[in-house]
Amino acid sequence: MNKNKITSAILLPSIIWFPPLVAAECDGDTCNEHMVVMAEPISDGTMTITDPKLPRQPLPSFDGSGYLKTIPGFSVTRKGGAGGDINLRGLAGSRVSIINDGQQIAGTCGGRMDPPTNYISPETYDQVTVIKGPQTVRYGPVGSAGTVLFEREHDGYTVSGFEGRASLTAGSFGRQDYLTELTTGTENYYWSLDVNGSKSDNFEDGAGNEVQSRYDRQAINTAVGFTPSIDSLIELSYGKSSGDAEYADRANKARTIDNENWSLLATQAFDDQLLTELKFQGYWNENDHIMDQFDRPVEPGEPLPIGANPRRTTYGGLIWAEFIFSQDTSALIGIDHINQVQDMRSGTSLDELLAARYQDIFSQRNWGAFVELEHATGEGTLYSGLRYDDWQTELMGSWASDSKQNQRDDDFLSGFVRYEHEFAQQKLYAGVGHAERVPDYWETMKAGKMLTLDTEKTDQLDMGWSYFGDSTVSLSLFYAKLSDYILIDTQATPKARNIDATLFGGEASVEYPLTQTLVATATVAYSRGENDSDHVALGQVPPLEGRLVLDYQYGNWSFGSLWRLVAKQDRVTIGQGNIVGQDLGQTAGFGVLSLNGVYQFDEQFKLSLGIDNVFDKEYAEHISKSGLGNDALPIEERTKQVNEPGRTLWAKLDYEF
Predict the structure, then answer these.
(1) Cα separation of 528 and 543, whole Å?
(2) CA 1 from chain center: how many Å?
(3) Which residues pair with residue 462 across a beta bridge?
(4) What is the pLDDT of residues 425-440, one digit of tens each?
(5) How many helices (H) and strands (E) does the chain have?
(6) Is residue 407 within 8 Å of 392, Cβ to Cβ?
(7) Distance of alpha carbon 235 from alpha carbon 153, whole angstroms
(8) Per the count of CB atoms within 10 A, which of 325, 369, 456, 609 is most buried?
(9) pLDDT tens digits, residue range 363-408?
């Protein structure tokens, strides 16, 4: 098994100069390994691969959304300290497919307290891969905006061994994180375990206003594997997490946000000249969430608050087969299945709620089949894929009605073709993709409990250019037409309807070594959306954003600075957006400076100290939610949106063994 790569940071809260203790040791001409990820360069066209064990600045939330924010094209909707919802190129919700080590995972809360990334502790994974646009069909349903893979290694030991890592993080506003990972095994067996947790008190924004954002979350994951031969693997894994949280955009508190999951993985490689590998995975996961206001005092004559306990149970599986037809042509062929059931119970007290019976209200089932081909043509490679999906959606219980449509069947095709051409340290690519998706639980709920929304169709062109030399330059552009885009419009009834829309924009990055030990990185991302049906701006599209980064490495020391610049957003349509949020109005631009540094004691220890938002700037992301639910402030002092944290200091210690 490959040893987990440990990279941690020592982040310094000032620009005080520390003289190097030892001479620089660099591979190649420059020291360009980022000790702290502040702006992820575009790595390979439509795909970006990153190491989630690397620390990131600003200090991300404990879940997956904060880690993705450093990748150009991503923004995050803030509700508080937990539950951030990702937005990719102006698209959010089910348009971004989240894959948890092979498992399809979705939230359960009708108000998005628990988006899929809420259940993911990124540092426990070995790799995060982002595929932008509908440029893959193997992870159904196809993510029209993109697909995010949180992946763990699944390898056996060749000889008996034991390894692990541990980290502790402490920061402003009571932030405390811990992580322990252990792996041991022999030639035929292995066992892995990770235990992690994170908690924080309410933070303060740059103006000193307290923001209701407290959370506490704990998780454990373990796996046992059997490797009877170098070509065979069987692994059974189990994970469980539990937490609670408070938010600044709503009155309800998350009393519980729990997840439990099982997965069985089996792979077999072959020496056959045609069939090279078979993969099977079956999984089950369940999200259990209680939201209520039971702790709020009730005035005489006031109705009792109602708490709700939504729950989503998902099971599914896949079978993949890899083929090599010739020296130039290979294929991946697969089938997969997803079955999701949403049920709920409620009550006017916690005891009444817990004593109530669950009632099924919504289900979706899918069978999918796909083929992806790769064909080499001289200096270029042609990638293509085609997918068929058969979806069945049903309303049940209190959602169903004899006078309304309670069931629907949808059959559709998705696919893509992309050509990549490499020459003289450069790469050019261009691809077209088509994705179709059914209305999800949140969109159906907004449609007035009727299955009347049309399926959403996305046709997108992706193209780009990259240069890899002493410096690295990348540019990626996209243009998308969305037919029957599912718009959430809080000013209309029902609140969900189909429109036609257009989105275009792109991302660019430059990584340039100024000296042997000093590297500059710049990234920029922009998306523009049009509601073609209403002839207005498409709601919830983030503004132009850029990042300027300096990384200095010398010996055991590393220092860095991040200047994040975001333009104003005046292209808004108030009340319109997606299942995550709707436009609240125009927002001002802002710039935020953060500093970091790293000291490596030896091969095992790294220590970090740091400061985010050095000048204590008061600001909010354009797509963030309303701050009117912030109980930490009197009503007259609450902000229009949930502001970002003010000046934040943090320290991190990592140990590898």
Answers:
(1) 8
(2) 26
(3) 431, 478
(4) 999 999 999 999 999 9
(5) 3, 34
(6) yes
(7) 11
(8) 456
(9) 999 999 999 999 999 889 999 999 999 999 999 988 887 766 789 9
